[in-house]
């Protein structure tokens, strides 16, 4: 191949590579990306250089940029994304990140403020209060929600200079609120005091409509109270303010419940509902039954309502199911104790009746009526003294009186 031809081929190859590189470069840029022109300014509107920008969005970022001398930086993001931009500067700060919703090509101006810091000390009647809550709000927006150290102190990170609403409290303590001006490094002491409020616990059984009060229910507030409801289904106790409590309500025969109670700084009521533990009962009309006859049994639920279609067996042998009134008649086929059992939806109950022979003394029928002794017929037995049939004591006295009267007449 001639040198001239080789040169042409080389140039063509270079052009091809360059073209491929250009195409690849274009392809590497998402056709759905847009460029935000971000300008960072102070409270007076002056542009700030050397501001670090960190942009993130769902499934995207971070994109890091630094503002130039004119306070500007170009940030490429996904079109239509909700982009969060955080600003970091040696002397300025922004309490809340800046959010660009539904990003599109255009200008974005982010204002920052000079940085300050606050140290808050929380004190009670006996000194510093550790683990106290410190909250700060700026222009109605929450900025800080932290707890004090063991010495009752909390120092904020760098925050915007300005006026803040400062709130301090702790579980069992009343809130203290003030306005704090942060104009550099500032300190503030906040006093709080312990307090309790009256809480009424009302327990009812919502099986009924309307629900019915439940008396003698046990109400437990761990570390605070363990009390019992009275005739109205209520009980009241003092509970420390500004706390969250897990309240447990129990009563024998009822399912226990746990309720979340939030106590602030005024009297309040906790309404708790419980229901009886699911169960069935089995009752026989008679406890003694003549062998060969039947006894009627009734199956009821935990509220005394009839349980239809309950399976009933006698000494392990199935005899049938209860009717719509929860009733079934069970034959008693052997003397001695007979166990009758019922089952419904996993609930079980038993009752024992006694089978007795038909010749037994004072034997009861299935309906509870005693069997009468048969009437004796035939010739009456003679009475003592040989006075003959039909003579009793009264007859003997009459005979004696007649004899005495006859003797008297003969004597006359």
UniProtKB/TrEMBL annotation:
Residue ranges of the TM segments: 387-407
Record's keyword annotation contains Transmembrane: yes
Database matches in InterPro entries: CarboxyPept-like_regulatory, Ig-like_fold, Invasin/intimin_cell_adhesion
Keyword set includes Transmembrane: yes
Assigned keywords, A-Z: Membrane, Transmembrane, Transmembrane helix
Entries under SUPFAM superfamilies matching the protein: Carboxypeptidase regulatory domain-like, Cna protein B-type domain, Invasin/intimin cell-adhesion fragments
Protein name: PGF-CTERM sorting domain-containing protein
